[in-house]
Amino acid sequence: AFASQEDVLTTAETCIYNTFKEFSTKNISKPPFRRIPFNESMLKYGTDKPDLRIDLTVQDATEALGGCGFGPFEGNVVKAVVVSDFKETRKFIDKTLADVETVSGNKPYWFRLDENGEVVGGIAKFVAPIKEVVIAALGLKAGDFVALSAGDLGAAQKTAGVLVKTLGAAVPGHMDKEQYAFCWIVD
Fold first, then answer.
1. Whole-angstrom Cα distance, residue 31 to residue 17?
2. I need a labelling partner for 131 at 20 to 30 A (CA). Which of 15, 37, 44, 140 fits?
3. C-alpha closest to that of 162 among 55, 59, 46
């Protein structure tokens, strides 16, 4: 009758850990599981159910890209997901972003930095004039792919969350499929 939230989480962690340890050969995060406040989860992962096996996160790009002249960004929140060491084809990009649009209901946008550090593809003509500002704001380097979402805060976060999950699972090297990474979303 007097159990706290922490008591319940601790008891559940032991049960979850022991069950997965017994029936899985994958690496399992050990208790205590990470506690992530809801607002932090929404800002960093674009969802309240993040897949911590994926190393991609959401960055706010509103200040850097909100005034670039690209219509969908004007007056909206702009979120970015940076995928390092990106070597995928244009066909892959088109299909993956079409899948993201289907799931999220919002159109994602993109550009990338080629091996010479030049802005190419997608909305490159809007980003190129402010290239240095965008590179500094997002910490970009040659070979990075940048997927973008825009809209009110909820729509931009939702689309960015789908981008993280979809790109993390599809682009080699960004998801550790040999582990279970548990967390609690709190607050």
1. 7
2. 44
3. 46
The whole model's pTM is what? 0.94
Q: At what angle do helices 153-170 and 38-45 cross, to 10 degrees?
A: 60
Residue 101: HSE in the Cβ half-sphere, 13 Å Cα cutoff: 10
Q: Outline where the chain has alpha helix (H).
A: 5-23, 38-45, 62-65, 90-104, 124-127, 131-138, 153-170
- Give the C-alpha separation, 21 to 23, whole Å: 6
Q: Is the pLDDT of residue 1 over 80?
A: no
**Cis peptide upstream of residue 31 (ω within 30 degrees of 0):** no
